[in-house]
Amino acid sequence: MSYIDLHIHSSYSNDGEFEPEELVDQGLERKIRYFSITDHNCVRGIHEAELYGKDKDIEIIPGVELDCSFDTVDLHVLGYGINYQNPEFNEIEESIISQEQTASQERIKLVREMGIDFSDETIADLSKNGIVTGEMIAEAAMQFDREQKNSLLQPYYEHGSRSDNPYVNFYWDYCAQGKPAYVEVEFIKLQEAIKVIEENGGVPILAHPGKNVKENGGLLEAIRGCGIKGIEVYSSYHSTKQIFFYKDFARRYNLLLTCGSDFHGKTKPSISIGDASCEDNEEEIIAALKGILNS
Q1: pTM score, whole prediction
Q2: Percentage of the chain surpassing pLDDT 70?
């Protein structure tokens, strides 16, 4: 466990569970000293966290996680130290919400065509802003399959091979890019995400590359060439081998190393705040990040 967690989602993310104030309390309980709420394309939870965390023994670093694309690959870029009051961030969020509302209906249709059903009423209860994520579909489908007979859902039930984080694993298996229920949303380009973050005083960091870059050295080199300033080397998703790979790459090119759990709550029940161990490099990570933010 680390006392740094720079990748946490609040209820302002469609797949997040807890209010910003609750997350601050959870961080304090777990002895977190440096903390960042990085909601998907959304900065609305930052001010609430800062107000609640004021005068508490925790430092809140403003953050966001922007969905973006590079060539044909969907990526996530974290932005730290941003001026989150710039309405540009709200414009990005509104564009994504509009597209996701349309994509949700196609996503529902594709999952049902696969042979997985669920209650429309349950989906309506789970939906936020008219958006239905793969994680919500998984939750609704597992409730609907009361006798647990659907073979496509077996891996996500207790003792199944994907039961550690069943809802998000369902998303990665069926609704992520390249999977049968994937629906394309037109995200901003990687270069634009980097520009938005930097023009608002922030530092752009490539999030959990082990999930979508997959140790593809050529792709990682191309991403670096776009201006990424760091890599989320220490992630709850990364194996020891992946940590070594990304740490070596970051050191070679003098990129920042960061650490984040990608905590969401119920969609990833095996992940807690502070779960991404950073090999006792906390002070180095924070000093390097602050060095850039204060320069």
Answers
A1: 0.92
A2: 100
Sheet holding 59-60, edge to edge: 4-8, 34-37, 59-60
The answer to whether residues 53 and 123 belong to one domain is: no
For residues 140 and 123, the answer to whether their CB atoms sit within 8 Å is yes
Answer whether 138's CB lies under 8 Å from 156's CB: yes
Domain extent for 157:
106-175
Given this model, what pLDDT does residue 295 score? 80
Under-50 pLDDT residues of the chain: none
**Assigned domain for 98 exists:** no
- Are 86 and 65 within one domain? yes
What letter represents residue 17's amino acid? E
The total domain count for the chain is 2
Alpha-carbon distance 122 to 116, whole Å?
Answer: 14
Q: What is the CATH number of the domain that holds 47?
A: 3.20.20.140
Say if residues 234 and 277 touch (Cβ distance below 8 Å). yes
Three-class HEC string of the chain: CCCEEEEECCCCCCCCCCCHHHHHHHHHHCCCCEEEECCECCCCCHHHHHHHHCCCCCEECCEEEEEEEECCEEEEEEEECCCCCCCHHHHHHHHHHHHHHHHHHHHHHHHHHHCCCCCHHHHHHHCECCECCHHHHHHHHHHHCCCCCCHHHHHHCCCCCCCCCHHHHHHHHHHCCCCCCCCCCCCEEHHHHHHHHHHCCCEEEECCHHHCCCCCHHHHHHHHHCCCCEEEEEECCCCHHHHHHHHHHHHHCCCEEEEECCECCCCCCCCCCCCCCCCCCHHHHHHHHHHHHCC
